[in-house]
Write a structure and sequence with these properties.
By secondary structure, the protein is mainly α. The chain folds into two domains: 2-110, no CATH class; 114-269, no CATH class. The protein is 64% helix and 1% strand. It contains twelve helices and two strands. A two-stranded parallel sheet has the order 1-2. The chain is globular.
């Protein structure tokens, strides 16, 4: 079992939460961890996205460089603490509750960025003709023209992410670009956005659901390096399945023009 981020282990708790709220959150966490606590030595905890984004495509594909060795080693102990908290160990319970508040703060920060995602969906939707939108919403599949647009959308978003991310100091000059985390994140995000367009656009989606889309995209991007995404969330599973298929079929060997375009963009930033 692969865990993309330590924070996802904690049920979000508001600052104003009552003691009962905190206990309820702890119960929810115990339910989420029910399987993992039985097999703690089989769990691998991955590094956060800031660290993973700095890896080259070649390093990312080895997967070992993505693993947080310290947290993986300490995960069985964490499970013991969780069980102790369930038995009313107050000191450990307080630590878990504080981590829950940190998880809530992280989700709230993501919620504040949902308006940016909404504008991104609207802008991407405008690049499609009425005929193309009709085809998408009837689930007729991607025509060669739509495939070309999707490729360009993915590359454009990947380029912007690489431009803005503090961990990126150089752009890949070879097909290894498809193996960088930011590229795969851009692919999964583009797939998620396209799905929202198929369903009618951002106007019909709440900020909370857009925030959840970003969480799904992060999980899906990590899952492309491993054996799949284990989830009951149909939207997250679909985002992963579509992205993995496109990565395998459309981006197996990036066309030379796409790499050249990214190189031109990068030279413009430096």
């Amino acid at each position: 079992m692969i865990i993309p981020s330590p924070l996802v282990l904690f049920a979000p708790i508001d600052e104003s939460a009552t003691k009962q709220d905190a206990l309820d959150a702890l119960d929810a966490l115990n339910n989420q961890m029910g399987v993992l606590v039985q097999f703690p030595t089989q769990v691998i905890v991955l590094k956060g996205t800031l660290d993973v984004c700095s890896l080259s495509g070649r390093d990312a594909m080895t997967r070992e460089r993505m693993i947080d060795e310290t947290q993986t080693r300490e995960f069985p102990e964490f499970c013991q603490h969780l069980l102790a908290a369930k038995r009313v160990d107050l000191s450990i319970k307080e630590q878990i509750i504080e981590n829950g508040r940190e998880a809530r703060a992280n989700l709230d920060r993501m919620l504040s960025g949902s308006s940016t995602l909404s504008r991104g969906i609207e802008q991407m939707e405008k690049t499609y003709t009425p005929t193309e939108l009709k085809s998408l919403r009837k689930r007729k599949g991607l025509t060669p023209q739509l495939q070309d647009k999707l490729v360009r959308d993915v590359l454009s978003l990947a380029g912007e992410l690489m431009k803005q991310h503090p961990s990126v100091t150089d752009i890949p000059r070879d097909p290894q670009i498809r193996n960088t985390f930011l590229f795969r994140f851009a692919l999964c995000a583009s797939v998620s956005i396209l799905k929202r367009i198929e369903e009618g656009g951002a106007g019909k989606v709440s900020d909370e659901n857009l925030r959840n889309d970003m969480v799904d995209v992060n999980f899906a991007a990590f899952a492309t390096y491993f054996d799949g995404l284990f989830t009951d969330d149909k939207r997250a599973a679909d985002t992963y399945a579509r992205s993995e298929y496109l990565l395998r079929e459309m981006f197996a060997i990036p066309p030379p023009w796409s790499l050249a375009s990214l190189i031109v963009w990068w030279r413009g930033w430096t």
